[in-house]
Amino acid sequence: MKLIILDHYSQASEWAAKYIRNRIIQFNPGPDQYFTLGLPTGSTPIGCYKKLIEYYKNGDLSFKYVKTFNMDEYVGLPRDHPESYHSFMWNNFFKHIDICPENTHILDGNAPDLQAECDAFEEKIKAAGGIE
Fold first, then answer.
1. What's the pTM?
2. Where is the Glucosamine/galactosamine-6-phosphate isomerase domain (predicted)?
């Protein structure tokens, strides 16, 4: 792991967004080769997501052949609840880019068997080739 120390949140957000952008571009995703991205939620990555949205809107980056897997979700909170991470990701990132909804993966915090949900999620990550 490489540790990057920057003085300001905006610098860290931009550095992270550029890193993700460059990794996606270098990977050169296409219909036969998707880039798989693990994503966090909460307030910390919002600056990074805004920069990624900017890259998309400027035509510098596409998410058409990107699959995402989010790290967490609240248990017992409906996915359409404004405080769910599902809502958070759609409102703060996914609805602003060209990602296909079926390529976004967020745990179901209302699954009847949470362990089975986690196991199935892990299998989806493996089937996607792991997280880049």
1. 0.93
2. 16-128
pLDDT digits (tens, 9 = 90+) for 84-127: 999 999 999 999 999 999 999 999 999 999 999 999 999 999 99
Q: How far is Cα 99 from Cα 67, in angstroms, rounded to an integer?
A: 8
SS (H, E, C) the chain: CCCCCCCCHHHHHHHHHHHHHHHHHHHCCECCECEEEEECCCCCCHHHHHHHHHHHHCCCCCCCCEEEEECCCCCCCCCCCCCCHHHHHHHHCHHHCCCCHHHEECCCCCCCCHHHHHHHHHHHHHHCCCCC
Which residue range is the domain that position 113 belongs to?
15-127
Residue 3 belongs to a domain: no
